[in-house]
Design goal:
The protein is an alpha/beta fold. It has one domain (2-107): ATPase, nucleotide binding domain (Nucleotidyltransferase, domain 5), CATH 3.30.420.40. It has helices at 35-49, 69-86, 98-107; strands at residues 2-7, 12-19, 22-30, 59-63, 90-93. It has 3 helices and 5 strands. The longest helix is centred in the middle third of the chain and has 18 residues, at 69-86. The protein has a 5-stranded mixed beta sheet, sandwiched between helices. The radius of gyration is 15 Å and the shape is globular.
């Protein structure tokens, strides 16, 4: 199974490609305020580097938190949309073994359908000024 991994909870984004549990490609880059503008291009570049296309992806594992509100929101929105459009399974995972745990779940046939973020704290919502 060709698996895309995505982590966007911190200024340094991580994306990778796995064939089952074997890493084929991995990119870590400083995405801080340009994540939404760059993540698709980075994935596309990584895919072409291993002679794959978007349609080659058969499952997605994404880090679901805790972490940055904006980073998680961008990464998970993109991952969920990609999984839905390709009709492939998606797993959200946390902790230091998030990649291994997520890949294991996919290989067992699990599919969350929609991964929701875990921010680690309640949001700080400011009160509108009059």
């Amino acid at each position: 199974m060709n698996i895309l991994i995505i982590r966007t909870d911190k200024p340094e984004a991580e994306i990778g490609l796995y064939k089952d549990d074997e890493q084929l490609a991995y990119i870590s880059y400083e995405a801080h305020r340009i994540l939404a503008e760059t993540v698709h291009r980075k994935i596309e570049s990584m895919l072409s580097g291993v002679a794959m296309t978007w349609q080659s992806i058969e499952g997605i594992v994404c880090y679901k938190g805790p972490g940055s509100f904006t980073g998680l929101r961008i990464g998970l929105s993109m991952a969920n949309a990609l999984a839905s459009s390709l009709s492939i399974p998606i797993i959200g995972s946390s902790g230091s073994d998030w990649i291994e745990d997520g890949i294991s779940g996919l290989l067992k046939g699990e599919d969350e359908k929609l991964v929701l973020p875990e921010y680690g704290a309640d949001p700080h919502i400011t009160i509108q000024k009059k």
